[in-house]
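[Discussion] Sanity-checking designs against the backbone

I'm trying to build intuition for which residues belong where. Below is a structure token string of 594 positions. I'd appreciate it if someone posts a full sequence so I can compare it with mine line by line.
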């Protein structure tokens, strides 16, 4: 039995809910007369009915009820699209994107997607597996054709049929989700060699969706997909090698080279994503010295494939690269080209240039419009910019309530800057009801993600008991960890202020935290500096020779500290504060502190 991709069946099943009455009448005779009769009926009205032309084109593409004739299918689909039949346009984009009965051509796919943008609200085609229902909830005859076709194929253990059935069972507005059955058929299809099912199953084992996380199993499946020649699988495997190399912080030289090899294979298949990743690797110098010329070439190749993202990356290269490659004029041109093609990120970049006067004269109102456009489309950096503009009244009337609303929206989506900003506004009652406890929850989220400013602010709240009980250990710890990530004169001053205001009872607690921070700063007890300070701070020979108490030598120890090479500013500050604390308590505490 011949089987076809589910996405192709989906277009047949999803013959527009706004199809003409004549087309619907033809489909109603399906069960009595068979698919051949339906095709014949569609052919009779195809000349003046674009919906019929679309459906007949799909049937010719599938060989359903008519001879398999991809050339005739292409002719009918293009004609229907030219008459505004958007499903035909999306189906053409799908064909060129996947290479179904045509030569794969991402540039041509992108062109048809742009046509679809002009014909309706959504720029993207229906995803594979999306069998469209009528708004009334009744099942169109085309849907029955699709489901029978797929179920028959699955029952015959055909890989494509099993994979398509798995996708249906994932659920949608027309079929209740059945995760257990979805995974069962997905495994069956993958074991039978169905590449799409292997790819989807690998993503589940990476993410832990539907199954227990198993990165090793996921990579095994993904390698099979890549080795089968599927470009998006090759790109995904390269990403895994670059971003999650077996739990290591950075990929090894071998992993890096393997990632490049897979990306080059995918790029040879016209994968714009592969070209963009190769461009980034060269631009960031991950393959050696930054190579802006090669990065530029890869971005241009991806842009020629119709990638809006490539134009944004090319603009970013012109905006940030040093020397002869840097050009604000070219950057702005690329961003505008990307925006014209539907890029959201380019709005953020161009808005920043306009706000700084690097894309003509400074125009804060125009910059805000770009940020707002991208924010409405879901861009987290844009939401942060909109919140900041509303907070400052830059390019728009100052509105704390709106600023908080945008910050909260971005915070809930995981943006750490926004989590910190929402916390500060909650703590002060700006644009919202004052709630220090809620502020601390946002600060903890951002701090846990490693955002330095949130760590410092959380430390301040512990220091002054804002929404929590005062806890000097937590206060010093969070402020110190903030400084370990990002130097800040503001938080450095806070750290010294905390040390100066310690009660005598708090000093040993603080000293313990400072010792922990010494490890963070690279000044461990085994390092050369700490013992030298300790010996200088106590004149130990006096105690050994005479049994008299040691004499504190704070000035000499401080002088050595000032001249000593330390790992960073925090390393100096931490040891300095340990000396100060020991000096305040006396000699008995010096060796335990240092």
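Best answer:
Here's mine. Compare freely.
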């Amino acid at each position: 039995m011949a089987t076809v991709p589910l996405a192709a069946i989906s277009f047949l099943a999803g013959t527009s809910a706004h199809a003409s009455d004549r087309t619907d009448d033809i489909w109603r005779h399906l069960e009595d007369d068979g698919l051949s009769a339906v095709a014949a009926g569609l052919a009779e009205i195809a000349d003046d009915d674009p919906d019929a032309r679309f459906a007949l084109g799909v049937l010719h593409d599938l060989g359903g009820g008519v001879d398999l004739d991809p050339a005739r299918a292409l002719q009918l689909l293009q004609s229907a699209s030219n008459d505004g039949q958007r499903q035909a346009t999306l189906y053409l984009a799908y064909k060129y994107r996947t290479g179904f009965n045509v030569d794969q051509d991402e540039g041509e796919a992108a062109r048809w997607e742009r046509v679809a943008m002009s014909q309706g609200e959504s720029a993207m085609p229906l995803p594979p597996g999306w069998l469209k229902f009528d708004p009334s909830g009744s099942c169109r005859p085309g849907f029955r054709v699709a489901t029978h076709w797929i179920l028959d194929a699955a029952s015959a253990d055909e890989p494509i049929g099993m994979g398509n059935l798995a996708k249906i069972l994932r659920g949608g507005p027309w079929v209740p989700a059945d995760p257990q059955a979805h995974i069962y058929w997905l495994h069956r299809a993958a074991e039978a060699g169905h590449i799409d099912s292997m790819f989807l199953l690998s993503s589940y084992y990476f993410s832990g969706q539907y199954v227990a996380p198993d990165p090793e199993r996921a990579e095994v499946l993904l390698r099979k997909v890549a080795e089968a020649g599927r470009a998006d699988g090759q790109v995904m495997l390269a990403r895994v090698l670059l971003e999650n190399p077996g739990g290591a912080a950075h990929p090894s030289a071998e992993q890096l080279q393997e990632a490049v090899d897979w990306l080059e294979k995918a790029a040879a298949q016209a994968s714009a994503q592969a070209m963009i990743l190769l461009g980034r690797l060269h631009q960031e110098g991950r393959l050696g010295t930054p190579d802006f010329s090669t990065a530029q070439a890869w971005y241009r190749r991806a842009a020629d494939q119709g990638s809006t993202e490539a134009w944004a990356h090319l603009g970013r290269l012109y905006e940030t690269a040093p020397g002869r490659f840097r050009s604000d004029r070219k950057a702005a041109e690329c961003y505008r080209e990307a925006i014209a093609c539907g890029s959201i990120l380019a709005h953020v970049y161009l808005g920043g240039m306009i706000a700084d006067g690097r894309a003509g004269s400074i125009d804060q109102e125009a910059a805000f419009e770009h940020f707002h456009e991208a924010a409405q489309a879901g861009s987290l950096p844009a939401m942060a910019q909109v919140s900041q503009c509303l907070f400052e009244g830059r390019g728009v009337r100052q509105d704390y309530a709106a600023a908080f609303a945008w910050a909260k929206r971005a915070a809930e989506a995981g943006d750490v800057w926004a989590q910190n900003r929402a916390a500060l506004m909650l703590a002060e009652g700006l644009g919202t009801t004052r709630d220090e406890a809620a502020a601390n929850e946002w600060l903890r989220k951002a701090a846990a993600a490693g955002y330095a400013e949130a760590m410092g602010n959380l430390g301040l709240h512990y220091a002054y008991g804002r929404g929590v009980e005062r806890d000097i250990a937590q206060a010093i710890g969070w402020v110190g960890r903030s400084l370990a990530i990002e130097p800040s004169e503001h938080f450095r001053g806070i750290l010294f202020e905390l040390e100066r205001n310690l009660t005598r009872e708090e000093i040993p607690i603080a000293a313990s935290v400072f010792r922990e921070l010494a490890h963070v700063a690279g000044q461990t007890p085994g390092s050369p500096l700490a013992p030298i300070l300790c010996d200088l701070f106590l004149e130990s020979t006096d105690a050994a020779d005479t049994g008299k108490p040691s004499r504190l030598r704070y000035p000499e120890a401080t002088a050595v500290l000032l001249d000593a090479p330390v790992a960073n500013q925090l390393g100096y500050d931490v040891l300095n504060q340990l000396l100060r604390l020991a000096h305040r308590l006396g000699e008995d505490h010096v060796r335990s502190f240092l």
